[in-house]
Amino acid sequence: MGNLRESNLVYTALVRESKHLEPTLVLTAVRLALLSDAATQQFVPLLRVLFHRAGFDASIYEGHFDAVALESLNPGSGLYSFQPDAVAVINSVQALRAKFFQRAGTVTAFVADTLLEIVGSWDAILARDAVTLLQSTYVMPYERMFGNFDRKVEESFSSAVEAINTGIVDAARVRSAVLINDVQHIASWVGRHRWFDDRLWDMAKSFCALDHLPAVARNIVDIVLSARGRIVKCVILDLDNTLWGGVIGDDGIDGIVLNVHGSGESFYRFQCFLKELRKRGILLAVCSKNEMSNALLPFEKHPDMVLRREDITVFQANWDDKTANIRVIQQVLNIGLDSMVFLDDNPFERNLVRGVLPEVIVPELPEDPADYVRAISELNLFETASFSNVDLQRTDLYRAEAERRAEQASFANAGDFLRSLKMRIVVARFDAFHLPRIAQLLQRSNQFNLTTHRYSELECAYLMSSSSVVPLYVKLADRLGDHGLIGVVVVEPEGETLVVRDWLMSCRVLARGVEDYLMNCIVAEASTRGLKTVCGEYIRTAKNQMVKDFYGRFGFTRHSGDGDHALWSLDTSAYESRETFIQPVTEANQAN
Amino acid sequence: MTAVFCEVFDDDSIEIYPEMIAANVESWDSITHINLIVALEQEFKLRFNTADVASMKNVGDLECLIRQKVNQA
After folding, report:
1. Tell me, what's the ipTM?
2. Which residues of A touch B50 (CB under 8 A)?
3. CB 3.0 to 4.6 Å from A295: which of A23, A232, A290, B24, for a disulfide?
4. What is the pLDDT of residue A408?
5. Tens digit of each residue's pLDDT (9 = 90 or more) over A302-358
6. Contact B34 A204 (CB under 8 A)
7. Given CB atoms, is A468 within the 8 Å cutoff of chain B?
8. What's the sign of the alpha-carbon dihedral A240, A244, A248, A250?
9. How far apart are CA A280 and CA A317, in angstroms?
10. In the CATH scheme, what is the code of domain B2-72?
């Protein structure tokens, strides 16, 4: 992801680069289908390069020109035989314009028919394949037959386009598999004056001026990657000259530059932006070369500070190397380095972090703090494919975790501590209410994840209604707070064996006996069904080394496979139930 | 102009001549044609009309047109 952000996005350079992509071993495959009423050929080299830079090897299917409905409605179409992971529908306002001016009925009917066709295509695709679907918004047209009055006339072309965009967004809100590829946002950022090149549309049905095609391609890559779990979870912040102007240790609380209006407004605006990120579930951490007491001072005493101490999940202020502090933050939060963004005004620190921790995303910050928010916004760092209430509570969850760690130190042994937590667990079959969070956990869990199958919400719904599979979610609460939905276990009986298809857990809850509790459940389930064996699988990824020998710890024998992909099995009669300090409860009782 | 051709067709050995047409270069399709037109526009800081592009028959015509537009500027 880091490379993608800093790369140049020049059309000709990207096209050239696409012809010389280095084959490497570590690339993950992604299958993307493009359906459009504009030319898709120009997108292909750009997408391949941008995916490649992010570590993905993209196979791209181009649907027939202007045949979105045909491809999606015909079960024998090339789209379906391609078996995509993601489908990007790219609609051009140029094609819409031609249809608009040929309409036979009313504008209201035109809008309704257009939406019916778009949403009908989605539903046809989603009914057949569990894919991520990216739908573009229409770029607003430039012609205004009524001048400024256009806005007041429902029948104007611009009003029609706006109504269609609103309809697209409304329909996508109730379909979690449909993500918005907001091309209108990109075009308005560039400016429509420069966006459109009608000559190129006439000659080759080019979607827009070639200069801006890479931005559309990058948007598609960003969305596909976020749907596959590549998301930013934490922003690590420098303090002096990043969150406020000046140096707190030298200038003191009255000397630093930070105000609601005036010279310090740029820092105030930046902090407001960060606070909104925190509210939507992005964790904030501080990494500053400072005395701790000085670093905390503005958070506690400065009247114009927007961020307060409780907004910062991990606060590292000392004179150590920043990369060492970032490692500490990473360990406390237990998230991947590639899900962290490091923001620092000092180019030396940025380069140091880039050199030592290349996975961390380190954007260039502009010299003028007035441009911080704008520069970071332009990078589109905070793409996500879902949003739920859990995101809102995340900061609280991590803070409660810090409290637990502090308490743990005061107990004589781990058992006493675990008992004192009064943990309550729910293990229940997938249900519609929990599907969004289940799908999110499947997308995001990397470390404690034995097979890393990234089921989408739709695939989870299939599992939910399956009669053979037993798909379970796990929720945990304790005296200090509610962890929410923290695990997924999918098992399936197969002959004499109970096969564990998936087992993943949030790393926040490790080492409390949850895995012991669940293994007890799984073996008990096998015994109840009269099955003699439990079988488990481990598929290695770049991040799940932690559970490499997970089954071995429970007395399973590895009977085939190597370090990358191993099968383990356990004779249920030989299993000794593990002691845990966790009380099973039902969904209704957990809250108490 | 040769440099632009080399860049667009990703082939440093390309030599252009007045009678050259799209059929003479393997990768010269409608999309690379657009890429070529836009690359020439950027290189020579000019703008082709749709009619200009439609009326060009070969590289000689293209060169002629570029000269004309550069001299006008």
Report:
1. 0.89
2. 199, 202-203
3. A290
4. 67
5. 999 999 999 999 999 999 899 999 999 998 888 899 999 999 999 989 999 999 999
6. yes
7. no
8. positive
9. 25
10. 1.10.1200.10
> What stretch of H or E contains A584?
strand A582-584
For chain A, the C-alpha Rg in angstroms (whole number) is 26
> CB-CB: which of A12, A199, A203 is closest to B7?
A12
Residue A6 scores a pLDDT above 50: no
Choose the closest CB to A204 out of B7, B31, B48.
Answer: B31
What backbone torsions phi and psi does residue A227 show, to the nearest 5 degrees? Answer: -65, -25
Instruction: Give the bridge partners for A91, in sequence order.
Output: none
Whether A591 has a pLDDT exceeding 60, the answer reads: no
Residues in A touching B38 (Cβ below 8 Å): 11, 200, 210
Structure confidence at residue A426 (pLDDT): 94
pTM of the full structure: 0.73
**What are the CA-CA distances from residue A552 to residues A387, A403, A512, A548, A549 (Å)?**
36, 32, 19, 9, 5
List the domains of chain A with CATH numbers: 2-227 (3.40.50.1110), 234-378 (3.40.50.1000), 411-590 (3.40.630.30)
Residue spans per domain, chain B? 2-72
Picking from B7, B10, B34, the nearest residue to A203 by CB comes out as B34
Show the tokens assigned to A289: 């070369």
Best mean pLDDT range from A23-27, A136-140, A543-547, B8-12: A136-140
